Amino acid sequence: MSQPVKLYNTLTRQKEPFEPINPPYIGLYVCGPTVYNYVHLGNVRTFLTFDSLFRYLTYVGYKVRYVRNITDVGHLVGDSDEGEDKIGRMAKLEKLEPMEIVQRYTNDFHQIMEIFNILPPSVEPTATGHMVEQIEAVKKLINQGLAYESNGSVYFDISAYNKEGGNYGKLSGRILEDLLNETRELDGQSEKRNPLDFAIWKNASPEHIMRWPSPWGDGFPGWHLECTCMSTKYLGSQFDIHGGGMDLKFPHHECEIAQGNGLTGKDPVRYWMHSNMLTVNGQKMSKSLGNSFLPSELFTGSHPLLEQAYSPMTVRFFMLQSHYRSTLDFSNEALKAAHKGYKRLANGLRIVKSMEFTIEEGSTPEEAHLTEIQKIRQGCFDAMNDDLNTAVTIANLFNLLKKINQLYMNQLLPSAVGREAFNLLRDTFVGFTEDVLGLKEERNENGDALIDGMLDLYKEYKVQKQYDKVDQIRAYFKAQGLVIKDMKHRIDWAYEE
Ligand SMILES: [Zn+2]
Fold first, then answer.
1. In angstroms, rounded to a whole number, what is the distance separating the alpha carbons of residues 323 and 325?
2. Which of 87, 266, 299, 428 is at 20 to 30 A from 80, Cα to Cα?
3. What enzyme category does the UniProt record give (predicted)?
C-alpha cells in the first residue's frame, strides 16, 4: 500500500491522491447491468475498467470490498420516470416470467465476464432482493421532507433538497435553470411538483407485472434508489469509490448523491469515476446505426463490420491500450494490431514461466540489468498510480519483454543478468500482465497443446533424419502464424512477428 495512487474524481474534475476512509479497506461500488438483454461491448469496457481498478488496488495490498449490482427491476425504457420496465417489456414480448428474463441475461452476463477474465465482485446484490431497504428509504425521505407522494408514486423533491443545502447538479456540472429549460413536460409529469423531481417509488398500473405492496399501494422502486440502498448497505453511509459508465453520470449518479445526502446527511461517495464510450469507426455504437455488436459476434466474426474473429484476450488488450477516460474507437485495423501485441505478451508469459534459469557457478551479474529492471518495474507502478494508465503500463511490459526474448535467444546470458534481477523481471512481468491487467494465455483457442505435441514429433523426426516430415511440420506451423525456433540446444515455437 506504499503506492501513491491518484484517481480522476468526476466530482472535483481533477486527479486527486487517493486516500481511503479506512485503510487497508476500500469500498468500491459499480453500477451493474440491467439484465433484460445481452451485454454489449460498451458495457464490457466499463466493467473491464473497474476490473483493472479492483485488480490493481488488490495487487498493491488493499482489501477491497467490491459491490456490483444486478438491476432486475425499476429501470424503465428510455431511462425515464415513465413507461415500461425494461425487464417487464421483454417478459411480455417473450411470454416469460420476468424472473426468467432476469435469470437468462444474468447468466449470459456472468459468462461474458468470465470469458473476458473480469473478476466477480465481492457482493452482487439485486434490486428485487432489497425491496425492504428501498421502501424504508422512501419512508425516511418523506419524513425528512425531501420526498412527497402523488397518486401512489413518490418523488424526490429537488427544491426542498436544494433549500436544505443540497446541490443537485454538482457531479455532472449542470445548472438547475438550464436543466429546467431543457426539460420538456411529458405526459404524467403533472404528478411532479417540479419537472426535475425524480421517482423513488412508482405506482404500478394494473397491467404492470412487476409489483410489490407498499404504504403507497402496489408499485416498484425508482431505478436510482436501488444503488443508494445497496451501496450504503454493504459499504456504509460514506464509501471510497463509485464507478460506472459516462452515461450514468446524469441523472443516475446525480440522483444517488441527492438520495444519499437526504438519507444520511453525508455525501455518499468520495471518488466518482466514469469510463468513456466505445465508438465504431468513429461513430457512437448504437443498435439503430447497426454498428453495435455482441461479444459472441466478435468471437465468431459474424457481424458485417468485422473482417475476422477476435479472441477475448485480444479485445481485452485492445481496451487496455487506451485510457479509460478517452473514447475508444473500434476498428478492424486496431483490433488486428492488438492481436499481434497481445500474442507477443502471451508468448512472453509462456517463455518466462517455463524458463530454466541456470547460472554458472562463480559468475557475477552485471549491476546494470538489475537497475534497469527495477526502473521498468517502477514505471509499471507509476503508470497505474497515474489514474490507471494501462496503456503506459503495457509499454513498460514490452520493455521487459525485450529482455525476456533476449534471454530466450541467448543474446543475454543468465549469468550476466543474475538470479535477483531475473526473479524481479519474472515477478513484474507475470504480476502486471496476469494479475493487474488480467491478460492470460489463450491456450485452448490456439490449440497450443496440439502445437506442443507437434513439436515433440518434429524433434523425433529430426533425430530420425526424416526431413520431409520435418518440413511438413514447419509448414503446418507457418499456416498457424507460428515459427519453429530451431536452436542448437533446444527447439521451441513462437508467434510470428
Ligand atoms: Zn446504479
1. 5
2. 266
3. ligase
Distances (CA, A) of 226 to 83, 198, 201, 456: 18, 13, 11, 57
Ligand 1 centre distance from Cα of residue 286 (Å): 21
- Residue 338's alpha-carbon distances to 50, 169, 451, in angstroms, are 21, 39, 23
Answer yes or no: is 255 a known binding residue.
no
Rounded Cα–Cα distance for residues 444 and 460 (Å):
24
d(CA 248, ligand 1 centre) in Å: 7
Instruction: Answer yes or no: is 403 a known binding residue.
Output: no
Residue type, 351: I
Q: Cα of 391 to ligand 1 centre, how many Å? A: 28
What lies within 8 Å, CB to CB, of 289 at 6+ separation is: 283
The answer to whether 497 is annotated as binding is no
The Å distance, Cα 239 to ligand 1 centre, comes to 15
Helices then strands, counting H and E runs in the chain, come out as 17, 15
Is residue 353 a known part of a binding site? no
Q: Is 252 annotated as a binding residue?
A: yes
- The string of pLDDT tens digits covering residues 185-203 is 555 557 899 889 999 999 9
483 vs 359: CA distance, rounded Å: 28
